[in-house]
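Per reviewer request, we include the raw input and output of the structure prediction for the construct analysed in the revised manuscript.
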Amino acid sequence: MSALWWLSHLAWVGGFLLATLLLAHIIRQHRPPTSTLAWILFIVMAPYLGVPFYLVFGGRKIKHLARCKMNLHREEGRAPDKNLPPLEQLLMAHGVSPAIDGNRLSLCETGETSYGALVALIEGARQRIDLCFFIFHPDRVGQDILNRLIRRAKQGVAVHLLLDGVGSLQTRERFLKPLAVAGGHFAFFNPVLHRPLRGHTNLRNHRKLAIADDRRVLAGGANIASEYMGSDAKTGRWRDLTFVIEGPSVVRFVELFRADWQYASGQAPGQSATVAVASDYRAGEARLQVVPSGPDMPGDALYDVLLTAIFAARQRLWLVTPYFIPDDALCRAIILAVHRGVDVRILLPRHSNHRLADIAGRSYLRDIQQEGGRVLLYQHGMVHAKAMVIDEELAILGSANTDMRSLLLNYEVGVLVTSRREVEQVSRWLGGLMQGCEEGVESVSAIGEMGEGLARLLAPQL
């Protein structure tokens, strides 16, 4: 027999063994059934494509990172305090730090106010500026923000800029190099070509936050690009939501950023003199709980929070998201809320910037609509905001979309708001956004249903 035959035979045997090991690994992971089934079918039906794809994109939890990432889940394993509300007990079981009183929460409801808040944060910092964004476009807005960071770095302020390796793929190092020359620092989170076979390529840092002097943070859904924010009103600018927090909860964002920075750059982020007193700094009356979620956490805190909050809803469940691709459990929880008489409203853009996400989500929306839930379609462009209001007692803000990528794969951060005044503030904003929306998802043909079903199957992987 020829050497070529032996090589091909060994390659086939090796591929079979590797595929078998990967199938065992997939089954052992805690994935949604649809995601598990999709990966198994992909590897079985097309092993020469499925195996390398899984090696590059198939990771979900990074256990060693969850064990050592700067004690982000240091509360894990503590016995729940029965005096706390159920959601806070749940998060304590996840190891999430408790809710904190004494904060001030201010909503930035337009791209212009988000830009103004970010500029004020950068210009007002005295010691340190930390930024983490999924997208930092090298457009007019991106150049303006970068120029401000460069100037502050030259003035002696410690500047750290962390960008996602996929979201900011168009942002080249040469664009950011002047920041390093000025004394600032930048890093990319999980660059695409950095150790691609570790399975981390699909695990993206979707957090958006900017911190000044460990005392003030801007967070939410908006990235740094002209479609999200700018100094002047722009036709077609996306509707998004950011918020500014002052008070002791800022410490949680500081810890989160520094853990991400050290992981991405391999460098210690340094300390600021204000971090020691930030936990004692009271700025208002808002009660907030910062909830990180992602591959660096042992569980899926944001997913569990959403599911639990939906089951607990009694009067209303209002939700805005750019992409709505839940799993069957979340969808069923929403339908059961409708059956309990809860006022269920889901707001999203009529057409988002991701056509596949629209197709994959329509069948879920149609199921909810048929049971009596209201689906509101925004008519004036793209909505990129992420927020939920439950009854009068809870609002959830942050970076996570209502899809399985955000809830089970991405690095995200959410904020639970449980003080009545701030919940009502979010409710008023969301109610205003609902004005003028078109209601209802149209029916589709049998061929359209097949396309939606296929997109629904593929969506958890994309």
